[in-house]
Amino acid sequence: LASFNGGNLRNAIARDADTVRIHVQAEDASTATYTLTFEHLKSDNTLLADIRLQYADDSAVVELTPTFSPSHYDYAVTLPFGTNSLPTILPAKSDEEQTVDIAEPQVIGEGAARQEIITITVTAPNEEDQAAYTITFTFAQNSDARLTDIFLRNERLEGFHPDTLEYTISY
């Protein structure tokens, strides 16, 4: 039978930041000290809270397809015709201790068939678990098949309009 400093267990426990010591004294005055060391496990969370895409020169936000979900890892974005650069990628951590790395774009194809793939790597606070989110950017091709003008023998076709597709020419 052991007593705990007058029967009060709370008085027998000494605490450090990560350690609890329990001092026990038996009736014959012999003692024992139990030491409990607590290891604070870091999170294995690799999920992002959000990914936003935005151009610096204006407030237009570019939408991901599908809409962002933390547990979905592959996204596509079609950028409007005439766009030559990628938007700024703004990942939002779901855990302050996560590390987020945005890789340089991997360019596939060229010209109208060009795609740029960005990988966002999230490392969990435990520094062991990782997840990769991928965004594939496609640059839209020009869909305007209209002429701006028609010239015949170096003269502008009278009455030309880009939306009028049929003309009768008398010569």
Tell me about this structure.
The chain is mainly β and 171 residues long. The protein is 2% helix and 42% strand. Strands 7, 9, 10, 11 and 12 form a five-stranded mixed β-sheet that branches. Strands 1, 2, 3 and 4 form a four-stranded antiparallel β-sheet that branches. A three-stranded antiparallel β-sheet has the order 6-5-8, with no helix packed on it. The chain is rod-shaped and about 125 Å long.
Helix/strand layout:
Layout: E1 2-3, H1 9-12, E2 13-15, E3 19-26, E4 31-37, E5 48-54, E6 61-62, E7 74-79, E8 88-93, E9 99-102, E10 106-108, E11 115-123, E12 130-139, E13 151-152, E14 155-156
Parallel strand pairs: 7-12
Antiparallel strand pairs: 1-3, 2-3, 3-4, 5-6, 5-8, 9-11, 10-11, 11-12, 13-14
List descriptors.
171 residues; mainly beta; 5-stranded mixed β-sheet; 4-stranded antiparallel β-sheet; 1 helix
The SS-based structural class is mainly beta
**Order of H and E elements:** EHEEEEEEEEEEEEE
How many E-type strands? 14
Ends distance:
122 Å
Helices, by number, come to 1
Largest sheet: 5 strands, mixed
Overall mean pLDDT stands at 87
Short description:
The chain has 171 residues and is mainly β. Helix content is 2%, strand content 42%.
